[in-house]
């Protein structure tokens, strides 16, 4: 909305002293003025039309950098690890004994393989698709692993697959291979290939 000259005078001069008084040219800006002179700007650079400057709310400056402490916890990848803040209500993890392969219902010991509250509130892409950590660490046969890799879109030759399988079996003391160990070997081979370039 562009302002005409008389509108600008009315807005910047404030109230008139009487109903019939005209605003004199030497009239000083009143305390009751709607806008100050500096709040009226050119509509476009180089144009003679004037308009009121867009006013900012005082809260715009306050909330621009407003963050809560809870929003900073693990808000991004590489966020604050759970070791840096207290996990109230979570029992101690028994790291001195290995987790049993088959747990009893009455066994309420925390072996460190249970999900945290953060993992429950913000599940990973795998768990939202129904694939859990136990599925990644379940031992697989060579044929089943080949089928899994084909189904997720990993195109790998038979000789490369056999080499990755051999290296993955060497990493486990029982010679068993799971999806996670197979994926780790694939990542290591790809990193070595990229470094050799």
TrEMBL record:
Domain EFHB C-terminal EF-hand residue range list: 118-191
What Pfam families would the database entry show?
EF-hand_EFHB_C
Q: Name one GO cellular component term.
A: cytoskeleton
Q: Does the keyword RNA-binding apply?
A: no
Q: Which domain of life is it from?
A: Eukaryota
Q: Which InterPro entries match?
A: EFHB_EF-hand_C, EFHC1/EFHC2/EFHB
Q: Which UniProt keywords apply?
A: Cytoplasm, Cytoskeleton, Repeat
Q: Where in or outside the cell?
A: Cytoplasm, Cytoskeleton
Annotated PANTHER family: EF-HAND DOMAIN C-TERMINAL CONTAINING PROTEIN, EF-HAND DOMAIN-CONTAINING FAMILY MEMBER B
Put simply, this protein is called EFHB C-terminal EF-hand domain-containing protein
**Species per Swiss-Prot/TrEMBL record:** Salvator merianae
């Amino acid at each position: 909305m562009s302002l005409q000259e008389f509108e600008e005078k009315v807005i910047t001069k404030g109230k008139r002293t009487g109903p019939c008084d005209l605003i004199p040219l030497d009239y000083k800006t009143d305390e009751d003025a709607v806008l100050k002179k500096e709040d009226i700007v050119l509509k476009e650079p180089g144009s003679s039309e004037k308009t009121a400057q867009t006013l900012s709310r005082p809260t715009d400056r306050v909330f621009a950098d407003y963050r809560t402490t809870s929003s900073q916890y693990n808000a991004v990848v590489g966020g604050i690890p759970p070791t840096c803040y207290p996990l109230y209500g979570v029992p101690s993890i028994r790291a001195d004994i290995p987790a049993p392969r088959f747990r009893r219902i009455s066994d309420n010991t925390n072996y460190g393989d249970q999900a945290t509250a953060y993992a429950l509130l913000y599940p990973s892409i795998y768990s939202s698709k129904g694939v859990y950590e136990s599925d990644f660490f379940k031992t697989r046969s060579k044929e089943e692993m080949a089928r899994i890799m084909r189904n997720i879109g990993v195109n790998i030759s038979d000789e490369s697959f056999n080499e990755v399988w051999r290296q993955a079996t060497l990493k486990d003391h029982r010679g068993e291979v799971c999806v996670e160990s197979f994926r780790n070997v694939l990542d290591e081979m790809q990193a070595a290939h990229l470094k050799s370039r």
